[in-house]
Amino acid sequence: MVADGLLDRLTALRRGDLPTHGGRTLAYVYDSGLADADEVGRRALAMFASTNGLDPTAFPSLAAMERDLVALTRPLAGAPDSAVGTVTSGGTESILLAVQTARDARPVADPVMVVPTTAHGAFHKAAHYFGVRLVAVDVDPVTKRAVPEAMAAAMDAHAGHVVLVAVSAPSYAHGVIDPVEPIAAAAAERGLRCHVDACIGGWVLPWAEPAPPAWDFRCPGVTSLSVDLHKYAYTPKGVSLLLHRTADLRRPQFFATADWPGYTMLNATTQSTKSGGPLAAAWAVVQHIGVDGYRDLVAITLAATRRLAAGIAERDHLALAAEPDSSLLAVQTDGALDVFSLSDEMGERGWFVQPQMAFRDLPATLHLTVCAATADGVDDFLTALDESVAAAVAAGPVEVAPELRDAAAALDPATLDDAAFDGLLAIAGLAGHDGALTVPKRMAPVNALLDVAPPRLREALLIAFLDRLTR
Ligand SMILES: *Cc1c(COP(=O)(O)O)cnc(C)c1O
């Protein structure tokens, strides 16, 4: 038995976290509500925790499970038999690899990727890591979907430099599916790769009714697609799939080096040593729930999403930022309240909803990831929402003091030193005593300040925050 009460201490630590189950945490976690599926996942995770995906010949079980998962996923993503896939640690790693592969497949000076503004932040991270310039094309202001003509124009404006075009199915921020077919066709006409980021939709859309327009490999120009199993496949964290239409398209993803005296390193992903646990858990959970199980979960989830959407749309002061195409909602408010206060109020009532800051012409919103386990709580959610809206309206929107706003706008994040950041963290309300950090219970004043900060400053502030959090 485990001595020293360590597990008790872990249990105590977990009490400070957001709940992972119960359907009231509407970002970060995915709850099927199926206790037996969770149990299967946990057991498989433990069984394979110490295995190492570094060398698939040493652990052939892992290669076999990876092939099985790819084979299971191919038909769901409309992929031809030629398609190949790789299990990665998550959506970000899948996207990083898609970008790196595209860049290395077409060595050009000043490589560019063309994406809608709503593309996930992981594309920006890939741009940063791999020296690819990200060209962000504005989306339709009403539908929040990418505009095919504008995407094509950006491809032409950067002709000779574009290594990748990407779209979302759906976007995280607004939950809408980009017009994959025409954008992939425009990419194909120009001989360009097109990636579909189906990280969050790839395990929902195959069972959505009515079926959405083709969003996957059924669109001939699509060359790669990412889908996270640790989202709507409800598997333990650490598993995503990156599919390529052909093995040729994937080849530059692989890395080998013989330039050192140790084993010849051979990797399909950015990680080298990696636990087989998440892969085994995904293999087990996906088959345990099965296609019929997912069909039921998706029906439950989308029905709950529609009820939430209808409830939000009919409430005073609230509106949907876009008509949802899947299981995600983005909620905006009128001037009587702000989304950050609303998020705090919902938090007090036991519901976590995720604030999203304003960007270009897109207003700040609250993000809701709806899971099967949320379905039973829709009425409770709407009750909490009514109370929260009333409280936030009574308090009025948080104001950022004009001098604070001006001071923030005047800063050049590139030239700030550590002491200046400590001052800024204090201004933002995040500094405690002696360089310690505090995370205030009510985040609205902090979020409102971050919301008006120029993006570069917002990034710098949050990096300074993380730096101190991890000292
Ligand atoms: C979650 C998500 C990602 C990133 O995935 P991680 O697993 O968090 O790394 C990328 N794109 C979309 C659309 C997502 O929802």
From TrEMBL:
Keyword presence, Transferase: yes
GO MF annotations, alphabetized: transaminase activity
InterPro entries: GrpII_AminoAcid_Decarb, PyrdxlP-dep_de-COase, PyrdxlP-dep_Trfase, PyrdxlP-dep_Trfase_major, PyrdxlP-dep_Trfase_small
Keywords per UniProt: Aminotransferase, Lyase, Pyridoxal phosphate, Transferase
One Pfam entry name: Pyridoxal_deC
Necessary cofactors: pyridoxal 5'-phosphate
Keyword Lyase: yes
PANTHER family: PTHR42735, SPHINGOSINE-1-PHOSPHATE LYASE 1
Family membership: Belongs to the group II decarboxylase family. Sphingosine-1-phosphate lyase subfamily.
Annotated protein name in UniProt: Aspartate aminotransferase family protein
Originating species: Pseudonocardia humida
